Amino acid sequence: MRKLSVTENLSTEKKGKWKYFYENGKLQYESNFVNGLREGEQFSYKENGSLEETEIYQTGKLISAK
After folding, report:
1. Less Cβ crowding at N or C end of the chain, within 10 Å?
2. SS3 for 26?
3. At 8, is the pLDDT very low, low, confident or very high (cuts 50, 70, 90)?
């Protein structure tokens, strides 16, 4: 499955909000990056668009998942 991503950041290091999409154009997940590491909430969605999981990261480490 091909994944597409969208961000406002043009540097090679991930920072800021990133969004990844299924081939059908629906949002797969959105995550925030600081210095190349996940930070804060990440939301994962099923292919039908419903929320599947919420994860919380701190300095790139998963600290909570619902």
Report:
1. N
2. coil
3. low
Q: How far apart are CA 7 and CA 1, in angstroms?
A: 20
**Identity of the residue numbered 15:** K
Amino acid at 46: K
Which three-class secondary structure state does DSSP give residue 56?
A: strand
**pLDDT at position 13, please?**
78
Beta strands, E only, 1-66:
4-7, 16-21, 27-34, 37-38, 40-45, 51-58, 61-65
List the beta bridge partners of residue 32.
17
CA distances from 32 to 22, 23, 57, 62 (A): 18, 21, 9, 13
Where do the H-state alpha helices sit in 1-66? none
